[in-house]
Amino acid sequence: MTDSVNLVIDGKTYTLPVITGTEGEKAIDITRLRQETGFITFDPGFGNTGSCLSSITFMNGEKGILRYRGIPIEQLAEKSTFIEVIYLLINGHLPTLEELNKTRVILNDSSLIHEDMHIFFQNFPKASHPMGILSSMVNALKSFYPDLKNNDNLIKNFLNLISKVRTMAAMSYRYSKGEKIVYPRHDLTYCANFLNMMFDSPVHPYQIDEDIVKALNVFLILHADHEQNCSTAAVRVVGSGRVNLYAAISAGIAALWGPLHGGANQAVIEMLTDIHKNGVSIEDVIKKAKDKNDPFRLMGFGHRVYKTYDPRAKIMKKMCDKILGKISKPDPLLDIARQLEEVALTDPYFIDHNLYPNVDFYSGIVLRAIGIPTNMFTVMFAIGRLPGWISQWKESMEDPNWKISRPRQIYTGLKENNYKNIQER
Ligand code: ACO
Hints:
With 425 residues, the protein is mostly helical.
């Protein structure tokens, strides 16, 4: 097995070490490249750049594999709960019954929000996007819940944040509707509690449906981590300046908001709604997506890493069929989604570009069926991704070789230039 490679620059050979991961992926270690050769690498979008060693999530985009701490996503989606996955990601192993119960108790105990924070929620303009509110509120948590230092307390702090983000997400929805907030309940499970906080009303008490609770668990599990994606990279980069956890997570939420990342689930529903409302044909949509002169992209298709069907999309598609079958409510958007998928999967452009449905293609339809409003979709993604961000932040803080993130650049501006007095310009 190669443990080093040679780089020849102007006739001089430099030997660079090779790092091999547990699944056999290889990286050329260039940490001394600039010092020894004066060169840097150039990789916009970081598609070829490994930024850390990580033992949290493994994915293989060519084979469509995703595993958390070695456990395939398919097994976790079928057998596990979101609480178990939170524990798994943060601690590195599945919890025993005692550890699981302890986690549940901490999540329950920390589910309330400081009453002084309510005033913030009440004063955001009603049209505010919930992602903006959530990002600001998570940053504000630092003032209300100062960091704790020792490890036991740190885990409590993580669970505290996870529990509060769920409560704050439901609160922002209730306030945006002009409705009274619903407090968390000690007798409900994590996901059932969220649904109750979102939808319970004095005139229509919310009926907990275990299939809907399971669907929400699966949705959150599928989104719980995805190694060094845009928002996780943001959490690590911002965290590398040694800011507090809340500020780093708030940066992750802001990064997730974008339509090319977590905002895609909302963008998919908006795209399907547009097609439905305006009666656009599937052929025209596909044609538009392929047109180089048109910025339109087929939302929910394509992925930086997956060059085959996203394994999460397969699970989400099944969940979609199950939930829609159960509530026996036909969704015209699902029909459009199915037709788009069918055409795109056989179209040479999509085949040549390795463009397959990603998780967001079906997750929006599942969330709609559960009753989650479209502008809350990305917030749902954030609730799911939180344990991933936290685990990655923790891993980075514990890394003895961690450095502040500070990429280089190749300057392409003017050469040295003289200041001109204003009269001479
Ligand atoms: N529709 C049409 N064409 C596409 C699409 C799409 N959805 N995605 C990529 N392409 C084309 C590009 O036009 C480009 O074509 P070219 O090489 O002929 O110029 C080629 O495929 C490669 O595209 P890039 O943007 O270079 O691929 P990258 O890996 O940088 O982008 C991304 C990945 C951002 C996800 C992209 O596929 C996209 O915009 N998809 C739609 C938005 C989306 O669904 N995002 C969710 C991602 S999953 C997540 O974050 C949870």
